[in-house]
Amino acid sequence: MSNNATSSGMPQIGAAFAGWATKITLLKHVEKVVDGIVIANDIPISFSGTLQPLSARAIALKPEGQRSWTWLQIHCFARAVNLIPGDQVVWNGDIYKVTEIKDYRLSGYIEYHLAKDFQQGGTP
User: In degrees rounded to 5, what are phi and psi of residue 55?
Assistant: First the structure.
């Protein structure tokens, strides 16, 4: 077995990915209800990865009603960020909702798809 693969047989892209990654800081938007009042808190999350618009091809594969939304994708090292679908993050002052996770942990990274929350607190 080559030294580019783990025992799973999947190539490890760590060295190549590290050359593309930059430090990213998002705010994880958390809301909770206390005594009937919604309290919002933004918790900083810093990690190394890439953050870019979702490709036109990937958007074309989304359901028809979602293709006009503003989409981002994040690639980061596995275990660097623990987001789940439905989580909200703030990037450049806008709230985005995590809609999809592509788990490539066998190769050492994870991909997240995020849709801009146009209603700022509701479903895009």
Answer: -65, 155
Q: What is d(CA 98, CA 20) in angstroms, rounded to the nearest whole number?
A: 22
| pLDDT, position 7 | 56
- Rounded mean pLDDT, 30-42: 92
Q: What are φ and ψ of residue 81, in 5° steps?
A: -135, 135
Structural domains for the chain: 14-116 (2.40.10)
Structure tokens at 106: 């066998």
- 87 — phi, psi (to 5°)? -60, 150
DSSP letter, residue 19 = H
Does the CA dihedral 113-119-123-124 come out positive or negative? negative
**What's the confidence (pLDDT) of residue 119?**
62
If we measure between CA atoms, which residue out of 16, 14, 76 comes closest to residue 46?
76
Is residue 12 over pLDDT 70?
no
In Å, what is the CA distance from 70 to each residue of 41, 64, 97?
24, 14, 11
Task: Answer yes or no: is pLDDT of 1 > 50.
Answer: no
- Asked whether 101 and 81 are in contact (CB, 8 A), the reply is no
